[in-house]
Design brief:
Blueprint: E1 18-20, E2 23-25, H1 36-102, H2 106-109, H3 112-130, E3 133-135, E4 148-154, E5 164-169, E6 172-174, E7 177-180, E8 182-187
Parallel strand pairs: 4-8
Antiparallel strand pairs: 1-2, 3-6, 5-8, 6-7
Length: 188
């Protein structure tokens, strides 16, 4: 029993060197010799991996920014289409009010009732203007098929060929988009 057995590193929880009967025992684990070249290679590998991760992160960030812009643009277009559909329905009301005011008998023109109708007409126009609706100026202009719809071609003195003689039904724009083309008579 007096014979002591060497203690292995696994049995020694301390990280101090193992000592048996006053002598220091070398650890039996093989040590790898790490060279500067090995460290540099490992560093280069890790830097390459870090750059790949950074590149992927930056790409994902750019893709998300593009996605966000695309969604905002699509939402704006959807809003514009929806509001255009509603505004287009109000154009018939504007036309009716214009006809009513244009054909108002002279004896009723000064009445409060007729002035109330005109006030409603102006209020409706201001609401539409606030939504970005503008009139297409057509009378006396040259015919543009993108903005105008010709309902007749006529020989008229004082007008050059392709010039608009009269606007039969007013056209409107929402921003740069045609909400309704102007119906016009064109000189031949």
């Amino acid at each position: 029993m007096s014979e002591e057995q060497p203690i292995t590193n696994e049995e020694n929880p301390n990280s101090q060197p193992l000592v048996v009967e006053g002598e220091q025992v070398e650890e039996s684990t093989p040590e790898e010799i790490v060279t500067e070249e090995d460290i540099q290679t490992k560093l280069n590998e890790l830097e390459k991996k870090a750059n790949e991760y950074l590149d992927g992160w930056q790409r994902a960030r750019a893709e998300f920014a593009n996605y966000k812009k695309r969604v905002e643009r699509e939402q704006a277009q959807t809003y514009q289409l929806a509001s255009s559909a509603v505004l287009k329905k109000f154009l018939d009301v504007v036309d009716d009010l214009e006809r009513a005011l244009k054909n108002c008998p002279p004896e009723l023109a000064a009445t409060e009732w007729a002035q109330g109708i005109e006030l409603i007409y102006r209020k409706l126009l201001s609401i539409m203007e606030a939504e970005g609706v503008t009139k297409i100026e057509a009378e006396g202009q040259l015919f543009d098929p993108n903005l105008h719809e010709a309902i007749s071609h006529e020989e008229v003195e004082g007008f050059s060929e392709g010039q608009i003689i009269e606007v039969v039904k007013q056209g409107y724009l929402v921003g740069e988009r045609v909400l309704r083309p102007a119906m016009v008579r064109v000189a031949r």
